[in-house]
Input
Amino acid sequence: MEIVRDYHDLLMNAPMLVTVQRGKELRLELINLFARRAIGERDLVGKTLPEAFPELDRWLGKISSVVRSGQPYIGVDEPLTLDWSGTGTTETRYLTMVCQPLLGTDGDIDGSVMFAIDVTKSVLARAFDPPGRGWYEAALDVVATPVVLAEPGSRRILFANAAARKLSHGELVSGTTFGQAMGLETGYFLTDATGARVPDSELPASRASRGEVVDALKLRWHTPLGVIPLVCFAELVPAANGMPPAVVLSFFDTSHHERLERDLQDAMAARDAFLELAGHELRTPLTVLKLQIQSLIRKYPQVGGLAAIERATKRMDQVVEQVLESARFDEGRPPLNPEELDLCVLVDRVIERVRAEAARVGSPLARTGAPSVRGRWDRVRLEHVCTQLLDNALRFGAGTPIEVDCRDLGERASFAVSDHGIGIDPADHDRIFERFGRAVSARNFGGLGLGLWMTRALVTQMGGSIDVRSATGRGATFVVELPKSPPARAPSARSR
Output
């Protein structure tokens, strides 16, 4: 009995991990003091290995084979990724082990005993030390992107390239954790895009350790020197070719980009304020001019030149209105005011309003398609869209027939405005819908390049879409599709 007690004391105090498992279910019978410290002083005696360490299904099969076959198992630099401390954080450690079958009193195999040495430090040292380390670090140091390699679980930094060390002012020291390097253990902290503080378990390195892919996560690093905006990427790279698994992180300081964005927004605000002021300043003298021209036409209808002046004045008034509308768009549009409408009737009314101008430029107008298409739309916005597209057709398709085709598409309705004029190069199809976007010379064709931009914004606000089908010299067809009922929440019509 003394000999048995001596062996028990020897195993309990041995400077290595020693466990004894009984039965085919591998129920833990003994965990020595060294092993207890390795698993966070948890008392797992009485539990089966699958119950104690459910993360190790594949590795447990090797231990089970010892009991089944009676053959010992030897593992060299065996990676074990599990929750060693029992706190919910996994970590990869490397063990060199021997698992030996145990015989019961009847001479049959009744369990196993495992002896293991933690060789994590030596494995990591071999992986990241010479002779390969110098070339490896030199290759990453010339990469302009900040790159950091960290140990899964512990998040201990294994390597940080030159770009990462520069970005962190040299704080990303190998061997330290991210919490230490970023000051999270001394009062610094990170917040997400909403301003909420990010817990340790949701930091990029923690998420990547769990197998998540972190893609362009926006964080704000709060330090005594100020708040630094970061965009972070992280991913777990599995062990391969003798290299241990590692979390690969990259993060960028976006302070410069945020300053440029603020400057751009300020410049756009100043531009819009100027446009609005200029529009208001021009509107008053234009109103006086229009009244005077109309008065002269009534008195002297035989003077032909007055009609041309009136048309030019109307054109100037339209340009001023576009300038003012453009400025209002950035302040947000009022909510939709839908009412029961017949799209065909509305289109016919707009056609009648522009018929005189169409006759003047030699463009016959016709409407085709469905006789009636009913729905709930905002009358003012819909008339604006139809008017803009017909004005556009008269300008660029002057002297050619212009057709407006209305269609009932079930839950949706559409109308298309077609001309047979100069057409639009397919390369310019997207650009003509941009703010101040143009596909033709301003010298030959007037306008500010705002009409189609505002048209698309209005159509989008009504939940619809607008498309152009055209080629150079073959005319253009603009197709608008709209839902027959207004969207539950109208999309923003603000400038993008």
Remarks:
- Residues 2-118 form a domain with the Beta-Lactamase fold (CATH 3.30.450.20).
- Residues 255-299 form the longest helix (45 residues).
